[in-house]
Amino acid sequence: MTASVCKYRALWRSGRGTTRQASRRPRPLATHLRLLFGLTGLSLACGGEAEVATLSGGEGSGGGRSGSESPIVLRPDRILDGRGGSLTGREVVVHGELITAVAEAGSTEGARVYDLPGTTLLPGLIDTHVHLGWHFDRETDRLHSAASTDGPQERVLYAAENGWNMLRSGVTTVQSVGGPEDSPVRDAIAGGSLPGPRVLTSIRPVTAGTGDPDDIRAHVDEVAAAGADVIKIFASESIRVGGGPTLSQEQLDAACGRAREQGLRAVVHAHGPESARRAALAGCAQIEHGALLDRATLQLLAERGLYYDPHIHLIFDNYFANAERYLGIGNYTAEGFAQMDAAVPVALETFREALTVDGLDIVFGTDAVAGAHGHNWKELVYRVEEGGQDPMAAVVSATSLAARSLGLDDTLGAVEAGFAADLIAVAGDPTVDIRSIERVVFVMRAGRVYRNDPVTGSSRR
Ligand SMILES: [Zn+2]
């Protein structure tokens, strides 16, 4: 452990006790610090405690992590840096929770080495739109709803299970939009007692039912005080009932304006052009879904610097695959499913159009709901294979670009010294065959190994 890294650790640790009680403003800093403090095992990193490295096979929260004795070295065939670069002949050095070097392969002395032949190492995926707590009730095997009999304690467990399933599949950070069960799961993961991805959550959304602009500002203050990392706003109907606008310009101005005053980003559910246009004018940060957007609106998003987070496959595919578990609950009607069926080619066409809009930042999100957690990668495959996105651009959208959309691009989303050691290895090369993104064999988050499957083929060790 280098002195400088230990110094930073000490800094984080000294701040750790005060952050929770401190004023949460300015928000981006508070959010940022929480994620930094959430890098688990600070005492291990600069202490002298013994540890166990799992060098082949096995997985779990007790996997190897780097402590003071020696760094961990990851030696894949190639490295995608998350920003569009591809490197060979390099190894990644991890100390504690951080990447400390990207060095010439074989050059690091005294390290415990994870040989990962046949793999590509890249930053862990960042999904900017999931619903962490959505689940099928064990009793009924149907979507959790108001009629369900389970309580908050069960919902927290479902959220934890969904988090674990996503982490194992290579997702190391999620933005959940969002339920009250997210907060304890986020905090337990950040504290190191629960395996899962880093979680940012909106806790409770702004909807048309929230009320007039004053009510909306009060709501934003409330969820900010409750520890929300982001504000989620429903500004249009569901695609199942047409996707028309549900909030006025004044309501959106109030929601996104107040969010900014609280130092929070506002992400906006908006299917049709009018709702997205209002959100752009209100200074919101990101448009979710946007299946029905036209070119002029996509250009407006680019001009105004909003991120566009389209969901064009996993959400539909998962609903169709689990139709029996959704049908008859809320607006999951036969007609609603027909609307979704009709929306599939429209959403795909909108995505293709978006790819041609100069300066539009298309970020990775899936809208993972009950049944979809751990299948997030399917969205990337579809974007490339059906949408025509360049595979490297797809990888960047789920790593450095997604990190930037969260305001965390100096910490997450890249393979670079000083960044969080959130790293995954996949068999093959996703820039040649995007389907290799499914073949996750190694998952590290905050320097801890959660998955390390034997890589088939000859080992170089
Ligand atoms: Zn959603």
Task: Walk me through the structure.
This protein has 461 residues and is of the alpha/beta class. The chain is built from 15 helices and 16 strands. Strands 1, 2, 3, 4, 5, 14, 15 and 16 form an 8-stranded mixed beta sheet that branches. It has a 5-stranded parallel beta sheet with strand order 9-10-11-12-13. Strands 6-7-8 form a 3-stranded parallel beta sheet. The longest helix has 22 residues, at 334-355. The protein is globular and about 65 Å long. It starts with a helix and ends in a 9-residue tail after the last strand. Bound molecules: zinc ion. The site of zinc ion has 4 residues, from loops. Zinc ion binds at residues 129, 131, 177, 367.
What CATH architecture label of the largest domain applies?
Alpha-Beta Barrel
Gross morphology: globular
List the ions, cofactors and other small molecules found in this model: zinc ion
Estimate nothing, just give the exact number of structural domains.
2
CATH class membership of the largest domain: Alpha Beta
Rg from Cα: 21 Å
How many strand units?
Answer: 16
CATH-assigned homologous superfamily of the largest domain: Metal-dependent hydrolases
CATH topology of the largest domain: TIM Barrel
- Please estimate the helix content: 25-40%
Q: Supply the number of helical segments.
A: 15
Uncertain ranges: 1-63, 457-461
* Mean pLDDT across every amino acid position: 87
Category from helices, strands and their pairing: alpha/beta
Largest sheet: 8 strands, mixed
Distance between the termini: 25 Å
